[in-house]
Design a protein that fits this description.
Elements (H helix, E strand, L loop, with lengths): L4 E3 L10 E7 L7 H12 L3 E6 L1 H4 L8 E5 L2 E6 L4 E6 L5 E8 L5 H15 L3 E10 L9 E4 L3 H5 L14 H11 L3 E10 L8 H15 L6 H19 L2 H19 L14 H17 L2
Parallel strand pairs: 2-7, 2-8, 8-10
Antiparallel strand pairs: 1-3, 3-6, 4-5, 6-7, 9-10
Helix pairs in contact: 1-6, 3-5, 6-7, 7-9
């Protein structure tokens, strides 16, 4: 039987590292969590230490390897697989990162392999990140919700605690695997305005990194993400202000959001006053045109 993972060299000796998880393939509106993870990898100068065996966890018909073809020569194949990285924040705190594709099979086996590896590396806490579309205005700070098997972990953070029966991703499975091993686990989910959910939304990425820093006690530079968020906000403002219907929709979302905050209920009504499809299509076309023009 093939080993479930391959270690690059030797496992590093770490001091009470935290693990941050973002596996692609599940809900990630605007790829906000992916953007946050890329910023964390860059900000911690993370280097790969482990690759999980693709044969054990990946369906190649779903995630076919990429072939590098040059003048007919098959130079190499790039296999998609979950990976673990190690880095340090600005205060020299050890950080582990689990990223790559969500496994297509053997979820419980994968969770056990990750959990046992975390015990070996001395992980003290796990934080998963994701993002989902929500009826919220882009003119307000992105809100975050959280999930955890631990009531203690939930009580320690100020984020939204929702009640629902929904399909789960691997991050949720890992929460339980960590809990079983005595490692506190918390999932952080950024809300992305539903009408921009199909395009980059760096404001949500920055909010996720900020939340990770707060709960994990890390220090990571997010200046680039915040600068991107300012630019994107200006583009969306410009488009919305040019259409009375779009402007009215955003104003209705703002009213619902502000009333919810005033009532002490940070989460606004999940019913959108408009479908958002029309504005989403127009915003996407507008931003594509701006990128093509180099603006």
């Amino acid at each position: 039987m093939r080993p479930p993972l391959r270690i690059d060299g030797e496992l590093p000796t770490l001091h009470e590292p935290v693990l941050i998880v973002m596996l692609t393939g599940w809900i990630d509106a605007s790829a906000a969590a992916y953007g946050a993870m890329e910023a964390i990898k860059k900000g911690t100068d993370a280097k790969r230490i482990v690759t999980f065996d693709p044969d054990s966890f990946i369906d190649y018909r779903v995630r076919r390897p990429m072939m590098e073809l040059r003048d007919g020569k098959n130079n190499k194949l790039v296999w998609s697989a979950p990976e673990m990285y190690a880095g340090k924040d600005d205060n020299d705190r050890d950080v582990l990162i689990l990223c790559g594709p969500e496994p297509d099979s053997a979820w419980l086996y994968f969770a056990d392999v990750v959990g046992d590896l975390c015990l070996k590396l001395g992980v003290v806490k796990m934080f998963g990140i994701g993002a989902y579309p929500f009826a919220a205005p882009h003119t307000r700070p992105p809100q975050l919700s959280c999930t955890s098997p631990s009531e203690v972990a939930l009580a320690e953070v100020p984020f939204i605690k929702s009640s629902a029966d929904v399909p789960a991703g691997m991050e949720s499975v890992l929460e339980h695997a960590m809990q079983e091993r005595g490692i506190q686990a918390l999932g952080l989910w950024g809300q992305v305005p539903h009408y921009v959910a199909a395009m980059p939304y760096p404001a949500a990425s920055a909010a996720l990194v900020g939340a990770v820093q707060m709960v994990a006690g890390l220090s990571i530079d997010v200046a680039d993400l915040r600068a991107e968020a300012v630019l994107q906000r200006g583009r969306i403002d410009k488009l919305v202000s040019g259409n009375a219907e779009h402007l009215q929709m955003v104003e209705q979302l703002e009213t619902a959001f502000d009333e919810a905050v005033s009532a002490g209920n940070i989460i606004a009504d999940s019913h959108s006053p408009a479908s958002g499809d029309a504005i989403a299509d127009e915003i996407e076309s507008f931003l594509k045109e701006q990128n093509d023009l180099g603006n």
